[in-house]
Amino acid sequence: MSAMLVDSFESRSCQDPPHLINPYNSEVILLSYQGGRISCDHMAFSAITDPDLVKFQLMINPMYHEDPDCAFSLIYKSILQSKALTTFNCSWFAVEKYFFKMTRNSTFYVQLNLHTSVTHRARFKLKIIPMGAEFNTEEVIGVIAGGTIGGLLLICLIGFGCCIFRKRQKQEKKSENVN
Fold first, then answer.
1. Residue ranges making up the domain that contains 145
2. How many C-beta atoms lie closer than 10 Å to residue 165's C-beta?
3. Which SS3 state, helix, strand or coil, does residue 36 take?
4. Any idea what the CATH number is for the domain that residue 62 is in?
5. Tens-digit pLDDT profile for residues 152-176
6. In sequence order, which residues have a C-beta less than 8 Å from that of residue 59 and are 6 or more positions away?
7. Cross-strand partners of 8
8. 108 and 152: one domain?
9. How many structural domains compose the chain?
10. Alpha-carbon Rg of the chain, whole angstroms?
11. What does the alpha-carbon distance between residue 80 and residue 91 come to, in Å, rounded to a whole number?
12. Are 74 and 144 in the same domain?
């Protein structure tokens, strides 16, 4: 069973930290707007900081999008002050799934631009799901292989050193016996 986190634009402030997306688990985030007042026009979703995480996809699945008064635009961005990845409004509803490729250093933004103060009939709900995570196992394999080879080499060098030491002891005993 996957965990579910419910959040809305009406309850968030810009001082809230970004939602941390963990592709290890199946956490689903439900993000909504129900026509109320907002104190922050965007929400951020960042990947957890895991050195083994290479990349994953964030699926944004719109559950509904209603805006009969053309009160808002819904914008997806990779950088808050950058050009929009895609924009939805009253003439182009968010109905299709959207996939965003994330790495361990990336952030995805959902921005809400209100065009009018009459927003009581405007609403949407998005289901945000991390999927398809890829992890870097090459480094782990390299450390294990390197440690194994290094350990074997160390054992061989110790054995070789013992053989040389014993050989010298035998030679010293022979030279003492001859005298």
1. 137-179
2. 10
3. coil
4. 2.60.120.290
5. 999 999 999 899 988 888 887 777 7
6. 97, 98, 99, 128, 129, 130, 131
7. 32
8. no
9. 2
10. 30
11. 23
12. no
**Judging by DSSP bridges, how do beta strands 123-135 and 53-66 pair with one another?**
antiparallel
pLDDT (tens digit per residue) in 46-72: 887 776 767 888 899 999 999 999 999
Same domain assignment for residues 33 and 107: yes
Nearest-angstrom CA–CA distance, 27 and 66: 26
Block residue for tokens 């809230």: 16
Note whether 31 and 117 are same-domain residues.
Answer: yes
C-alpha span between 23 and 45 (Å, rounded) = 12
Residues forming beta bridges with residue 77, ordered by sequence position:
109
87, 155, 158 from 90: Cα distances, Å: 10, 72, 76
Residues 130 and 143 placed together within one structural domain of the fold: no
Q: pTM above the 0.90 mark?
A: no
The type of residue at 21 is I
What are 59's two structure tokens?
């699926």
Number of H-type helices and E-type strands within the chain? 1, 10
Residues 120 and 153 in one domain: no
The alpha carbon of residue 156 and the mean position of all alpha carbons in its chain are separated, in whole angstroms, by: 43
Kindly state whether residues 142 and 131 are assigned to the same domain. Answer: no
How many whole angstroms separate alpha carbon 93 and alpha carbon 119? 16
Boundary (domain end) residue, out of 135, 156, 171: 135
